[in-house]
Amino acid sequence: MIAVDTSALMAVLMKEPPATACKEALGTNDRVVISAATVAEALIVAGRRGFGAEMSTL
After folding, report:
1. How many domains is the chain built from?
2. Angstrom distance (rounded) from CA 27 to CA 46
3. CB atoms within 10 A of CB 57
4. What SS3 string covers the chain?
5. 2, 19, 30, 32: least buried by Cβ within 10 Å?
């Protein structure tokens, strides 16, 4: 199991260096979880950086 955090989502969204490792970790785990608080935080952070729509589709 892996728990997703905002920094991992932002790395993927913004194509930062850790994005590849984050995508691999998410793609190779049988169980991926994310809290409602993390979803809210990620939407807020992405929205402030101009990536709100993109984060909604992640």
Report:
1. 1
2. 22
3. 6
4. CEECCHHHHHHHHCCCCCHHHHHHHHHHCCCEECCHHHHHHHHHHHHHCCCHHHHHHC
5. 30
- pLDDT tens sequence across 2-32: 999 999 999 999 999 999 999 999 999 999 9
pLDDT recorded at residue 8: 95
Q: 23 is in which domain, residue-wise?
A: 2-57
* CA–CA dist 23, 37 (Å, integer): 21
How far apart CA 45 and CA 10 sit, in angstroms, is 8
Q: What is the largest CA-CA distance in the chain?
A: 32
Query: pTM for the complete prediction?
Result: 0.84
CB 2 within 8 A of CB 22: no
